[in-house]
Design goal:
This protein is of the alpha/beta class. 46% of the residues lie in helices and 18% in strands. The longest helix is centred in the middle third of the chain and has 13 residues. The two termini are 34 Å apart.
């Protein structure tokens, strides 16, 4: 058995349900599963984790960010307001931070699925914020979309090397921004 493929018993233990309860979800189609030639069910770990997050089950759902939460980190209040309005109009929940230190605190209280991160921040720059988030096992899963008004190949390479998942130059094309957000979060905002 690979570690990505679980038996019903292993899946039940993983999410803290009884084997019988988990089997009912499988039979009802609540959890994607395949059948072996012998008739046994096998569940992909990623499908089980999607089910756990969808149902808000503890502890996995409480340790992972939601795909609808976005933290906006920019020292320019006009950019923060513009991004907040745009993202909220697409049904995303947002919070903002004006610097890297504030962003660090918000990451743990808000639990975003995505951080839109300006690179040129006071005190702690966006490169360092990105590096710290991606080096922490508790936050490595959070997607980071880097933004900058100082567009250069050097800045792009530096932030991507720090772990960013995407990069955009200012001034922003809002349609492209929303498409990048959807691509990074892996969900349609209409859900």
């Amino acid at each position: 058995m690979t570690k990505d493929m679980l038996t019903v018993g292993q899946a039940a233990a993983y999410c803290g349900l009884s084997r019988k309860t988990l089997f009912r979800y499988v039979k009802a189609g609540g959890i994607k599963a395949s059948r072996t030639p012998g008739g046994h069910y096998r569940i992909l770990k990623k499908d089980l984790e999607s089910f756990i997050l969808e149902k808000g089950m503890y502890p996995l759902a409480h340790n992972h960010s939601t795909r609808k939460k976005i933290l906006i980190v920019d020292d320019d209040p006009q950019i923060r307001r513009l991004l907040t309005r745009t993202l909220q109009s697409h049904k995303y929940e947002t919070e903002t931070a004006a610097n890297g230190f504030e962003a660090g605190a918000r990451v743990f209280s808000f639990k975003p699925g995505l951080i839109i991160l300006d690179l040129m921040l006071p005190e702690m720059n966006g490169f360092e914020v990105c590096r710290q988030i991606k080096q922490n096992p508790d936050t490595v899963h959070i997607k980071i979309l880097a933004l900058t008004g100082h567009n250069s190949e050097a800045n792009k390479n530096r932030v991507m090397a720090a772990g960013a998942d995407g990069y955009m130059a200012k001034p922003l094309d809002m349609d492209r921004l929303i498409q990048n957000v959807r691509d990074l979060l892996g969900v349609d905002s209409t859900r």
